[in-house]
Amino acid sequence: MTNTDIHALRVMHFFIIKATTNGYFTAADIVQFTEPKDLSPSYTSKVCQRLTQAGLLESHRGSKGGFKLKIPNPTIAAILNAVGDTPKKLQQCPLHKNAVVAGHACCGLMEAREPFASYIHTTTFKESS
Predict the structure, then answer these.
(1) What confidence tier does 50 reach under pLDDT thresholds 50, 70, 90?
(2) Number of structural domains the chain divides into
(3) CATH of the domain at 6
(4) 19 lies in which domain range?
């Protein structure tokens, strides 16, 4: 998993918690989210934009604008697909480039990946927390 994948999961976790209060993730919330973790607010905004393009968040413009959770309980794969192609990479063996998982593993490396790939495609974010 990439740093962007991990960041997107952290952002969505924050959103899911926030959705139980007022539901919005404003510019002030981005600063609140990023400062204690020493993260860039602009990078977080870019991740939020990618999550919006994927349909997981919705954005609102203006002085009271920000982002809001659109899909209340996405799968882990949906979040990772929004910011990269980690779930797709899990389906192809890095040792045997043409060997795509089709119900069986081509090697021990793919045997180890299959449970994880299955988990992220079937588990919602709330179930994993």
Answers:
(1) very high
(2) 1
(3) 1.10.10.10
(4) 1-129
- Residue reference for tokens 């920000």: 66
- What's the pLDDT tens digit per position in 32-43? 778 777 778 888
In DSSP notation, the chain reads --HHHHHHHHHHHHHHHHHTTT-EEEHHHHHHHHGGGT--HHHHHHHHHHHHHTTSEEEE-STT-EEEESSSS-BHHHHHHHH--HHHHTTB-SSSTT-B-SSS-SSHHHHHHHHHHHHHHH-BHHHH-
Residues 6+ apart with CB under 8 A from 16: 69, 72, 73, 125, 126, 129
Q: What is the pLDDT of residue 49?
A: 92
